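We close this part of the discussion by returning to an individual protein. In the encoding step, the backbone of a single protein was reduced to a row of integers, each denoting a local shape. The sequence in question and its structure tokens are set out directly beneath this paragraph.
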Amino acid sequence: MSVTTTTKMPTYKKIVHEGWRKAALKEFLKKYLSRAGFHDADLVITPLREMVTVYVERPGLAIGKSGRLSKRLTELLKQRFGFENPYLRAEKVEEPFLSARLIAHFIAARIARGERHRRVAFIAMRRALSAGARGIEIKIAGKFGSQRAREERFRAGVIYRCGEDLMRNVEYAVEHILLPQGMMGVRVRIVRPEARTPDQVIIKEDRINELLEEVQEGAGEEPSGSEERASEEVKEAPSGEKSPEEGSGEQGEKNQQEEVNES
């Protein structure tokens, strides 16, 4: 279905169609860019062209020699997804072992070469934690040298299971390997370093410094108008006058002295 026909759809159908097309685009690019270490893809549609940004571990393999692979992918995008003027751009993933998809691909490729799954899983966990991941979980299911399939789980750090923390902070990826003894699956969950949890306390040093400056400025200001008026009244009062409290005290002493003399 071309891009022009989607403009005639109702809004809800257009949203569903765009979501389906993005998911299909990621699966398509994952298949053709597996050697380059495909991580993710973004699609931005403008009036002039369709911008497809591919995040890979090795951008050189995604572009190809003299741009041959990128040109081929551009033609395939026109045929399969109906893009009129697609533009493919490759960006490098700075830290591959903070991507669940790349970790799953790493484990699957190593197991396909004949390495032991336990050794590969522990290598991936150590590299992810050294890269700064807050937690990682690896599940490998299949036949490990026996006729009965089983699942082995490797976990380190913090992994969230439900709620908003799971949807916001946990990245999930699945990879499948076809081996002589059957199909094997690799599932990876990873919590990235920038993940923020509700129980995490953040101290805003800048705000604290601003409040301290305001308090210091307030302490150095002159007294208020009411305090100034009270001090002026005290200064203007004549020296012979006494306060009502002092007068009432002397009158009470005189009354007591008179009562004593009469008795």
